[in-house]
Design goal:
Elements lengths: L1 H10 L4 E2 L1 H8 L3 H13 L3 E5 L3 E6 L5 H5 L11 E7 L2 H10 L7 E7 L17 E8 L8 H20 L4 E3 L3 E4 L2 E12 L4 E11 L9 H4 L5 H7 L14 H20 L3 H11 L6 E5 L4 E8 L5 E5 L4 E4 L3 E4 H4 L8
Parallel strand pairs: 4-5
Antiparallel strand pairs: 1-3, 2-3, 5-6, 6-10, 7-8, 8-9, 9-10, 11-12, 11-15, 12-13, 13-14
Bound molecules: biotin.
Biotin binds next to helix 5, strand 6, strand 9 and strand 10.
C-alpha cells in the first residue's frame, strides 16, 4: 500500500492530492495514508503536506527499490530487487539467495559495500551513495566453459546503457573493464556455481563509479579510476553553471538491466557471434600494444578474441598467445606500467 500511495502521488507530481481521495483510492483510513506518507518521507521522498490541500510529491530519491521498479522495461532482470543501505558485498548476498533458489534475474543493490570485491582477489572501493553496486543472479542454459561470453556481453550492455542513460561514450578493455578518459569507470565480477556440464547459477556483479568527485577515490586509485560526474566536470566545452550534475543512479540501473536482458536473450539463443562483434566494436584493446601481466609477462599486439572470449596476442617474436583471463595493461591508453585496475 505504501507503493500504491507513492504511485498515486507520482501520477500527480508537483500537485496536491487530498488525503481524502488517497484514502478512497487505496481503501484505507486517512491515518494510514498519513503513516505511509511519513514512511515515504523517511525514505527520501520530498512530500509537502497541507492540512487543507493534502500531499504534494516534489522530488524522488535517486536510488531505492521503488525507483528501480518504476518504468523498468525488462521481463526477467530486476523484477525482484533487494536494496540495502549497507552490505558487505552484493555478490555475497546474491550468492546466498541463489543457493536458496531465488528467481532468475533477482538483483541486489546497495548504497555502500563494506567488503566490495574485485577481480583477482582485489578489493573494490564502493563508497556510500556515489556509485552503482549491483549483482544479478542468472541461470543460463550453457556449459561452464562458456561463462566468459556472459562477462563480455555484460560489458557491452553496460557501455550501451551508459550511452543511453547519459550520452557518454565509453570503451571496453579486455576482458570487461569499462574505460572512460583512459581510466577505469566500471568493473564486472562474474562468479558461478557449476557442475561439469551445467551452470547452476551465475552472479554478475557490476560496479560503476557514477557521482564520485576526485576526493572520493583513495590516493592509489585517483590516477587510474574515474566517474561519470568527473568526466562531465572535466569536459572543457561545458559552461561553468552546467558543472556538478548528479546522475540518477536508478535510471542508469534500469538501462543496464534492459540492455543486459537483450544481450542475455542473445546468449540463450546461441547468438554468440553477434555479441563478439559488438564487443569488438566497443573494444579499446584490439589493435593496441599490450603487456600481459601474470606468471610469464610479455608484450605484444592484441589482435583478436576467440569464440570463447580469449585474447589473442601476437608477441614481438611473432608467436601467438591466447590469454584466457587475468590482466593486461594497454600502453597507449594507460601509460606504460600503469594498470587499469581499481
Ligand atoms: C573488477 O575487479 O574490475 C570487478 C569489480 C566488481 C565490483 C562489483 S560492485 C558490485 C559487486 N559486488 C562486489 O563485491 N563486487 C561487484
Amino acid at each position: 500500500l505504501k507503493n500504491r500511495t507513492l504511485q498515486e502521488l507520482r501520477s500527480k507530481i508537483y500537485e496536491y492530492v487530498s488525503g481524502e481521495s488517497l484514502s478512497e483510492h487505496l481503501g484505507v483510513s486517512r491515518t494510514s495514508v498519513w503513516k505511509y506518507v511519513k514512511e515515504l518521507k523517511g525514505e527520501g521522498y520530498a512530500i509537502e503536506s497541507s492540512s487543507k490541500k493534502g500531499y504534494k510529491l516534489v522530488s524522488v530519491p535517486d536510488l531505492n527499490a521503488y525507483e528501480i521498479a518504476h518504468g523498468l522495461k525488462t521481463e526477467i532482470l530486476g523484477r525482484k530487487v533487494f536494496f540495502f543501505n549497507s552490505i558487505d558485498s552484493t555478490n555475497n548476498y546474491a550468492k546466498t539467495i541463489a543457493i536458496k533458489g531465488c528467481d532468475e534475474g533477482t538483483t541486489v543493490v546497495a548504497e555502500v559495500q563494506t567488503s566490495g570485491r574485485g577481480r583477482l582477489g582485489r578489493e573494490w572501493s564502493s563508497v556510500s551513495g556515489k556509485g552503482i553496486w549491483m549483482s544479478i543472479v542468472l541461470k543460463p542454459v550453457i556449459g561452464p566453459e562458456s561463462i566468459q561470453i556472459i562477462t563480455l556481453a555484460a560489458a557491452v550492455a553496460v557501455v550501451k546503457a551508459i550511452k543511453n542513460a547519459t550520452g557518454i561514450e565509453t570503451g571496453i578493455k579486455w576482458p570487461n573493464d569499462i574505460i572512460l578518459d583512459g581510466k577505469k569507470l566500471c568493473g564486472i565480477l562474474t562468479e558461478m556455481s557449476a557442475e561439469i556440464e551445467r551452470v547452476n547459477y551465475i552472479i554478475l556483479g557490476i560496479g560503476i563509479n557514477v557521482n564520485h568527485e576526485g576526493d572520493d577515490f583513495s590516493q592509489s586509485l585517483k590516477h587510474i579510476a574515474t566517474s561519470l560526474k568527473m568526466h562531465i566536470n572535466n569536459t572543457d566545452n561545458l559552461v561553468k553553471e552546467q558543472k556538478s550534475v548528479d546522475f540518477r543512479r536508478s535510471e542508469i540501473i534500469k538501462c543496464v538491466l534492459f540492455e543486459l536482458e537483450q544481450m542475455y536473450n542473445k546468449i540463450n539463443s546461441g547468438m554468440n557471434d553477434v555479441i563478439l562483434d559488438e564487443w569488438k566494436n566497443y573494444s579499446v584493446t584490439l589493435g593496441k600494444e599490450v603487456k600481459v601481466i601474470g606468471k610469464s609477462e610479455y608484450i605484444g599486439i592484441a589482435e583478436n578474441i576467440t569464440q570463447e572470449g580469449r585474447l589473442i596476442v601476437r608477441r614481438i617474436d611473432g608467436v601467438k598467445e591466447e590469454v584466457l583471463s587475468g590482466e593486461i595493461s594497454i600502453r597507449e591508453l594507460m601509460g606504460e606500467g600503469k594498470k587499469a585496475e581499481s
